[in-house]
Amino acid sequence: MQQSNGAAEAGAALKTTSEHPPRPSPRTGERRERSERIPLGIAYMLVATILFAGSSALSKWLVATYPIGEMLFVRAAAALVGSSLVILPATGLGVFRTKRLRDHMLRGISQSCAQTFLVIAFSLMPLASAVAINFSAPLFATVAAIVFLKETVGPVRWGALIAGFLGVLLVTSPGVDTFQAGSLFALANAILFGTVTVGVRGMTATESAETLTMYQMVFLTAFFTAALPFGWVTPTLQDWGAMVVNGLGNALGQYLWTRALHLAPTSAVVPFNYFSLVWAIIMGFLVWGDLPSAALLAGSAIVVGSGMFLLWHEARGR
After folding, report:
1. What angle do CA 219, 223, 225 make, to 5 degrees?
2. pLDDT exceeds cutoff 50 at 28
3. Residue 204 falls within a domain, yes or no?
4. Which domain holds residue 48?
5. C-alpha distances in angstroms, 126 versus 129, 170, 172, 223, 278?
6. Which of 38, 61, 279, 310 ranks highest by number of CB atoms within 10 Å?
7. How far apart are CA 310 and CA 229, in angstroms?
8. How much is the average pLDDT of 58-73?
9. Is 232 domain-assigned?
C-alpha cells in the first residue's frame, strides 16, 4: 500500500468494521459494554501529552546524530519489550486473539508513516513549529469521526476544537515562510494521526487497550526494522539509554492515549492533545532556555482555555 493513500484506505476499512463489527470469539464472551467515562479519559490523555512531548524532544535531539530509521526502530523495539513485560504476564498470548487483524495492520502502517513524517519534520524545522502544525490533527479526527463513526459533534465541541486551533495559529503566526518541506511533513503526520485516532475509536468496540497496544508495537517494530539497512550509527552508552527511555515513555503514552479513546468519544478527548504545546514550551525553557514570546503565551492560553472549557462542559453534562 502506498503512503499517499494509506489514510483513505485505513478510513474505508474502519468504516466497514465500525458499521458491521465482528462478533467476539466465544472465549471472550459477549461484547464488552464501554462506559463513557469522559473525565478519566481526559486525565489519561493529559498524561499521554506529557510523555509525547518528552518523546518529541528526545527524538529531535537524537535524530541530529542518528539515522531516522535507526532511532525509530530502537524506540519501537524498546516500547515493544516494555509493553510485553507489563501486558503479557497478565493476559498471556490471548491478547493477540482478534478478528480484526487487517484493521490492526492498516493502523500500524498509518501510524508508522505518521511517526516517520513527524520525525522528518523535527529534523527540518524547530520542534515547537512541528508540534504546532501537528495540532491540526483534531480537526481531521473530528471530520473523520463524523464520516466513519457517525459521531454527533455539537457546537460546543466544534467551538473548542476551532478555538484551540486558532490558538495554535496565533503561536505559529503562519506566513509564506511557514510552508516549507518540514511543514508539509508535519501536515502529512497530522492527517494520518487524525485518521489513526478515529480508527482506534472504531476498534475499541471489540478490542481491548492491551490488544491495541501490543499489535501497534509489533507492527511499528516490524516496519522500522525494514529501515535499518538504509543507515546505522552505533550509539554511545548515553544515547542507548536515551533511545530506550524514549521508547518506554512513548509506549506508556501510547497505552494511555489508546485507553483515553477507549473511555470517551474522540471529539471529547482529542482537544486535550493541545496541552502538548504547553509542555513543549516548558521543556524548551527549562532545557534550552527558550523564552516564550507574547504570541506563544497568548496562543497557549487560548489552547488551555478551550480544553478546560470542554472539560467543564462534559462534566456538567454528566
Report:
1. 115
2. no
3. yes
4. 36-317
5. 5, 16, 11, 26, 15
6. 310
7. 46
8. 92
9. yes
> How far is the C-alpha of 6 from the C-alpha of 109, rounded, in Å?
7
Rounded CA-CA distance 199/177 in Å is: 33
If you compute the radius of gyration of the chain from its CA atoms, what whole number of angstroms results?
19
pLDDT, tens digit, 9 for 90 and up, residues 167-208: 877 776 665 454 567 778 887 888 887 777 777 767 878 888
Q: How far is CA 83 from CA 53, 170, 240, 255, 259, in A?
A: 20, 38, 18, 9, 14
Neighbours of 91 (CB within 10 A): 15
Cα 268 to Cα 282: distance, rounded to the nearest angstrom: 25
In the chain, the N- to C-terminal Cα span, in Å, equals 43
* Residue 12, in any domain of the structure: no
- pLDDT band, residue 224 (cuts 50/70/90): very high
- 8 Å CB contact between 198 and 266: yes
- Decide: 243 and 71 in contact? Cβ < 8 Å: yes
| Residue 17 included in any domain | no
pTM of the model: 0.70
Is the predicted pLDDT of residue 16 greater than 60, yes or no?
Answer: no
In the numeric block, the cell 516549507 is attached to 180
Helical packing angle, 275-288 and 127-134, nearest 10°: 170
> Domain tally for the chain?
1
Q: CA 134, 139, 144: angle at the middle one, nearest 5?
A: 115
